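Supplementary Note 3. Input sequence used for the single-chain structure prediction.
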Amino acid sequence: MSPDGGAPSKLWPRRMVAPAWVPLCRSWRGGEKLRVVASLPLPRNLLDAVEREGRHPWLATLPTIVEQVAEWWSLRVGDPFQPGGQTAWVAPVRGATGAELVLKVAWRHPEAEHEADGLREWDGDGAVRLVA
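The predicted structure, written as discrete structure tokens, is reproduced below.
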């Protein structure tokens, strides 16, 4: 089943461009277009938060970050979970060994400052296991 409950999600090879969910004509302040992220599917809630809170510079870097992480860790990246959260791009991935994992690329914000530390400490006991 796909992250949004629909048909099964296909994992796309790390070098392949995923289908865009971002309308190319949707604009933000200054008249710039979201075409800079058209190669990466975006969850609705994340896109709304970017629009509302002016995180456009972060959003512009997101496709490159996802591509680099996928290459470094030999990941096959699926479509992000829908409708998604407001502070991170989160998607299912498959590791080089076939392990099913989740990739989270977060926008820096105070509430998540120590999230990785906590997940590392809990080591999967009552929370997700941090792999990185």
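The longest strand covers residues 88-94. The CA atoms of residues 27 and 38 lie 12 Å apart.
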